[in-house]
Amino acid sequence: MKLHELRQAVGAKRPRKRIGRGHAAGQGKTGGYGTKGNGARSGRGGNIYFEGGQLPLVRRLPHNRGFKNRNRVAYSVINVGVLNIFEAGSVVDAPLLVATGMVHDFKQPIKILGEGELDRALTVRIDSCSASARAKIEAAGGTVEFVELA
Length: 150
Fold this sequence. Notes:
alpha/beta
């Protein structure tokens, strides 16, 4: 078989309907568009908002105000109080937090918030930290080091 010998199967391609070519053609006179009305006129269609008098869908749905910030950074958050499970002097970073199960989504940057109290000195290597959390970590004798966001 050669490329020039290829043919479509019989009935695979139907001939197009020739609308409005007389009664014998089966689609004569009104051409399948019914009699009168907006759908029968040239440039048919009309108001896509109009639903025959029914309250349109766009008016039935609630209007969502505001906007979604496309540049928002979603953080995995941890409070300072839960860092007490680590031994004093240890380095708390993203792999350790994932290993202990405190953070589940390792792709998101991690942020420490200031809820709770810290009673031991820790070195915290993290993406972001609130001012109150940083103050509590440093008050306990620890340090906060920021890792660059990827």
